[in-house]
Amino acid sequence: MAGNIVSDVDDWVKIQTVLISVFSKSGLSMLVPGLVRINPDIRILSTGGTYGVLEKMLGAQAKERLMQVSDYTGQPETQGGLVKTLDFKIYLGLLTETYNDDHQADLRRTGASPIDMAVVNLYPFAQVTANPWVTVEEARANIDIGGPCMVRASAKNYIRTASVTDPADYEDILRRLEESGGTLDLATRFALAKKAFAYSAAYDATIAAFLGKSADDGVRSCYAFQN
Q1: Domain residues of the chain, as ranges?
Q2: Which of 36, 73, 39, 87 is nearest to 58 (CA)?
Q3: In the chain, count of helices (H) and strands (E)?
Q4: Residue 28: which H helix or E strand, with range?
Q5: CB 3.0-4.6 Å disulfide test: which of 8, 35, 49, 73 passes with 99?
Q6: In the predicted structure, residue 1 carries a pLDDT above the cut 60
């Protein structure tokens, strides 16, 4: 059987480090100040576009509370943001198990931190491809890679990590954190994981459906061949 079978977990997990990487910025103006208010020591990791929004939102608090993913990993983003979060330190943080001694040794070895919550939503593939004139190349450019990986990793590790994919859940999550001293329980994390996997599955199904109905000549017409 593949993977680690875990028996020891914490019911309540303190939300101390949060990764935020979103296409839709809806609701962040409520979520982020709320997270900082509930836990003034919280640390937020974020990617380029989202980072800029959060930096303005947090103002003077940004210096202490906010860090670019590229500064955290030591790897700059590739041109066009093609690779931003696909890094060992990110996935160790998302997937690490609290009572796994080898995982904890990896955290110490790399200087990584457990990531307790991932707030992620994806490139708008469905919206882009709803345009009847969209090309296959334009569709391809809007296939998210890092986002679904983070959604799946954080959802898989619901035993410790909260996977947040729907801005409609922000208010309820803040309420739960407020009531519990900045922690989330296993039942909440599991409910978020179920929603996250459904979100990821629907995203992939939309891509498969679009590509499946795209003709080969439509693909060839997008490109200038170099050989």
Answers
A1: 12-220
A2: 36
A3: 12, 7
A4: helix 28-38
A5: 8
A6: no
Phi, psi (degrees; rounded to nearest 5) at 159:
-65, -15
Question: Strand 43-46 and strand 66-68: pairing?
Answer: parallel
**Cα-Cα-Cα-Cα dihedral sign, residues 144, 145, 146, 151:** positive
Which residues 6+ apart lie within 8 Å of 159 measured at CB? 6, 9, 97, 186, 189
Separation between Cα atoms, residue 120 and residue 138, nearest integer Å: 22
* Locus of tokens 């003034």: 40
Cα–Cα distance for residue pair 216/226, rounded to 1 Å = 18
* Residues 6+ positions from 212 with CB-CB distance below 8 Å: none
DSSP string, 68-134: EHHHHHS-PPPGGGSSSS--HHHHHHHH--TT-HHHHHHHHHHT-----EEEEE---HHHHHTSTT-
Q: How many angstroms separate the CA atoms of 28 and 57, rounded? A: 9
Identify the bridge partners of residue 12 per DSSP, sorted by sequence position.
Answer: 185
Q: Which CATH architecture has domain 12-220?
A: 3-Layer(aba) Sandwich (3.40)
Q: Which of 123, 126, 144, 145 is nearest to 134 (CA)?
A: 126
List pLDDT tens digits, range 34-46.
999 999 999 999 9
The predicted-structure confidence for 135-186, as pLDDT tens digits, reads as follows 999 999 999 999 999 999 999 999 999 999 999 999 999 999 999 999 999 9
Tokens describing residue 49: 């576009």
